[in-house]
Amino acid sequence: MKREIISTDQAPAAIGPYSQAVRCSGDFVFLSGQIPLTPAGDLIEGGIEDQTRQVIANMKAVLAAAGLTTMNLVKVNIYLKTMDDFAAVNALYAEMFDGDPPARAAVAVATLPKNVDVEIEGVAVC
Question: What element of type H or E holds 52?
């Protein structure tokens, strides 16, 4: 199996023992969960909309580093601190796609890294 690590300074560096993304056998790119950190590693303190915009910008940067766009995403998982934020996140998420969106799950979890309100991960196909 061919495995290529994808990394960019246009999204925040990993804050633990993981890669921003991994391309597998040339066909799949697995994006690690993105939280609302700037590329410099600063936490976005704003509300759910500001946090989600940063997460989406981070995802787009990692995808671009792999030579891909959001239209290459085939599966996305959204993790929320509370489902009360679902509508706001969903509206911003919908803006990511020009056409048919990928398969998706959205769940509420007890706690996210750095106590943020949203984390999004995805799988893309080349």
Answer: helix 48-65
State how far the Cα of 123 lies from the Cα of 16, in Å rounded to an integer: 20
CATH number at residue 27: 3.30.1330.40
Range of the domain at 111: 3-125
- Give the pLDDT confidence of 49-104 residue by residue, as tens digits: 999 999 999 999 999 999 999 999 999 999 999 999 999 999 999 999 888 889 99
1-13 pLDDT per residue, tens: 678 889 999 999 8
pTM as predicted: 0.88
3-state helix, strand, coil in the chain (%, to 5): 30, 30, 40
Tokens of 115: 């106590």
Please list the residues that pair with 32 across neighbouring strands: none
* Positive or negative: CA dihedral 80, 11, 95, 66: negative
Rounded CA separation 117/58 (Å): 15
Report the number of distinct structural domains present in the chain: 1
Tell which residue, 59, 115, 125, has the closest CA to residue 92: 59
Residue 74 to residues 15, 57, 85: CA-CA distances in angstroms? 25, 18, 23
